[in-house]
Design brief:
183 residues; alpha+beta; 54% helix
């Protein structure tokens, strides 16, 4: 019995040495990561215009609720995302890669840092990644989940005007733009 205890102490000591042998690897990796995080954080506080532009319907209560949440979430990432209300009269499709008011009303549009336009679920993925929810964006784009997400979003996009009580004021899925001073 005594031999077993000595052996187990030796085994524990060996495990401890093996663990300590790996410690510099972990330390080095964290040291390498820290400066990258500092650079990223410094870059987001620059005076450059935002990289991602989210085009949303400011008259849709569900859309506005989600945008407010995302604006709150991006407080740690200032100037990372611009939220553009397409329902304002001063919305100019020329500034946003030719995405017209009608196109933006049909489904979500997001313009990424490379000026590429994303629509539907890929747009949500880019938007969530930009505010720090990259895991959610990747989950939505995961091949087993994406068809389900696209079907659900298509149903929502087709019916959101009716579901939010705007069916009477909108004709053929389009609403009149509100004036800038109407809020």
């Amino acid at each position: 019995m005594m031999w077993f205890n000595k052996f187990s102490v030796f085994a524990k000591g060996y495990q401890m040495r093996a663990c300590l042998a790996r410690l510099p690897i972990y330390l080095n990796s964290t040291i390498r990561v820290a400066p990258a995080l500092c650079r990223l954080q410094h870059r987001t506080f620059s005076s450059k215009p935002a990289g991602v532009k989210v085009l949303y319907d400011g008259q849709c209560p569900i859309c506005v609720q989600e945008i407010r949440f995302l604006q709150f979430m991006q407080t740690n990432r200032p100037e990372k995302v611009d939220f553009i209300d397409i329902s304002l009269t001063d919305y100019d499709e020329g500034k946003y890669k030719g995405v017209s008011y009608e196109m933006a009303m049909e489904e979500m549009h997001v313009i990424d840092e490379n000026d590429k336009v994303h629509r539907g679920i890929p747009a949500f993925s880019v938007m969530y990644s930009a505010v720090g929810f990259g895991w959610l964006g990747r989950f939505m784009m995961w091949s087993p989940v994406r068809p389900f997400m696209e079907n659900c979003y298509d149903i929502f996009a087709r019916n959101r005007l009716k579901w939010t009580g705007r069916g009477e004021e909108c004709t053929k899925g389009r609403c009149e733009k509100k004036k800038e001073n109407d809020s």
